[in-house]
Write a structure and sequence with these properties.
This protein is an alpha+beta fold. It is 64% helix and 10% strand.
Length: 496
């Protein structure tokens, strides 16, 4: 007898071993057939210095600290507008709602790792035919001497009652669910950086329009001053005509010049109104006037005098950070798609009261439970899984190329702006010298005209040249201010 029992035990052990070997073999086969995920996650190494001749180039090892708009632009009225834009701009408010949506997706991905628990209250009633297995079984059971009266089955309508809980859980052995969670998490981070990017662009647009208004105001003032100069010249020519020293042609030329300046000044007022309306739209307001400074206030650009790590600047830009988080998300997607090649392990069960009678539903004998376990390995749908993985892997490679391109663009953009800011300082200096010389030329032309050594055309040309030089100077000031806005964006924007 003992030999027979030992033989049975050995047979069970052999069967268990064979089952383990078969399962292990399936896992190894699926593991060997799973392709590899692309590991391109790092962009090419950035240069240590920017390609610039200035000694104040932003290069070194100090970590970069994000900018603050109030200290970068150094204009209290502009800072007030920037704060208002963040609070009221419709596009920015929409982006905030999208951040909440992205956070919701992240929470869903996290919950997928937890077991699913459902409370169940189920009731049904079935009338079985006499010539069915259940119908014959119930009829025969009711004649059994081994059951009590409470165990007899209602044959007309057989109830099936269940009150309890069911649980199911997919074991995340291969990281499919955790990588989905990671992908959602990285996309949430990317959406946050996208919001930073939108804020930077919004604040930059507000600053650009604000500086344009200042430039238009300054140009309007230049036209007013020039008109006064023109009127003085017209008075001189008119007086000269009355004594026969000037012709009617000279008077009409000056009148025509004055009319031209009036027309350009009127067109300038239209530009001011349109620019104000555009800025009010960004602020989410219906109308009103924009309170602004009378001149361009130089921002504090101490950041250009610091030896800051190039890599630190570039990778703290919101567009670069957004592209990097999207790359990490696509990498997690590819890993999750690869996990589909491996078998899925599902565990579950239920526990509760199950009875065919309302009277016995809560009896101790009605308590029932079950444990479930399953192993599912893909066989015939491997082709689809391969294609899904191929697409996910290629999307990751696309994300890497986009990330590398964003880094390259950011570096070259900032390098060019460092050159540009330095160049504008030289241009403004020379333009101021030009205006000073032309101011003297206007005064000299008036004196020479009165002395008979210059004609009226020389006065007109002198005044016209001065007007153009002053307008050009304001235009260069505006471009310099716009360049500082671009530098603000290139340095990653800042908090407000």
């Amino acid at each position: 007898m003992k030999n027979i029992l030992n033989q049975y035990k050995n047979t069970d052990a052999i069967r268990t071993t064979k089952s383990a070997v078969i399962i292990t073999g399936i896992l190894l086969l699926t593991a060997c057939s799973a392709p590899k995920v692309s590991d391109k996650l790092d962009a090419a190494k950035l240069p240590e210095n920017f390609d610039t001749k200035t000694k104040e180039a932003v290069s070194g090892t100090t970590p970069f600290i994000p900018l603050k708009t109030e200290t970068f632009f150094k204009d209290e009225k502009l800072d007030a507008l920037l704060k208002k834009a963040v609070a009221k701009n419709p596009d920015y408010l929409i982006m905030q709602e999208r951040i909440l949506i992205a956070n919701s997706h992240l929470k869903v991905a996290k919950l997928a790792l937890l077991p699913s628990l459902d409370l169940v209250a189920d009731a049904s009633g079935t009338h079985y035919g006499k010539y069915t297995m259940d119908g014959v079984g119930n009829y025969d059971t009711n004649f059994s001497q081994n059951i009590t009266e409470r165990q007899r089955i209602n044959e007309d309508v057989t109830p099936n009652l269940f009150l309890g809980a069911k649980v199911s859980w997919e074991a995340d052995i291969w990281g499919k669910l955790s990588n989905r969670k990671k992908a959602a998490q990285q996309r949430f981070f990317a959406s946050q950086q996208g919001m930073r990017l939108l804020q930077t662009r919004l604040l930059g647009d507000v600053a650009d329009l604000y500086f344009k208004l200042i430039a238009l105001d300054k140009q309007a003032a230049i036209y007013d001053d020039n008109l006064k100069t023109q009127e003085r010249a017209l008075d001189i020519v008119s007086a000269q005509r009355s004594v026969g020293k000037a012709t009617e042609l000279a008077v009409q030329q000056f009148n025509a010049q004055n009319s031209n300046i009036h027309a350009e000044a009127s067109e300038l007022k239209l530009s001011i109104d349109q620019t104000e309306k555009a800025l009010l739209t960004l602020l989410g307001e219906y109308g009103g006037k924009i309170d602004r400074s009378g001149d361009f206030l130089s921002g504090r650009l101490e950041v250009l005098n610091q030896k800051i790590s190039v890599d630190s600047i570039i990778h703290k830009r919101p567009d670069v950070s957004e592209a990097y988080f999207e790359l990490l998300a696509s990498n997690a997607d590819a890993k999750s798609a690869r996990a589909a090649f491996f078998p899925t392990v599902n565990l579950g069960g239920y526990a509760g009261f199950n009875s065919f009678s309302f009277n016995t539903l809560f009896d101790a004998g009605s308590f029932a439970w079950q444990l479930l376990g399953g192993l599912t390995a893909p066989v015939f749908n491997k082709g689809q899984i391969k294609q899904d993985f191929f697409v996910s892997n290629k999307r990751q490679e696309i994300s890497f190329i986009q990330y590398q391109n964003t880094v390259t663009t950011a570096f070259n953009e900032l390098s060019a702006l460092l050159h540009r800011n330095q160049a504008y300082q030289d241009v403004l200096k020379h333009k101021l010298d030009e205006i000073d010389h032309l101011e003297i030329a206007v005064n000299v032309s008036n004196d020479l005209y009165l002395s008979g050594y210059a004609n009226y055309l020389e006065i007109i040309n002198a005044q016209k040249n001065k007007l153009e030089a002053e307008l050009d100077f304001v235009d260069i000031q505006l471009r310099n201010a716009n360049s500082q806005v671009l530098l603000y964006k290139a340095l990653g924007g800042g908090i407000n």
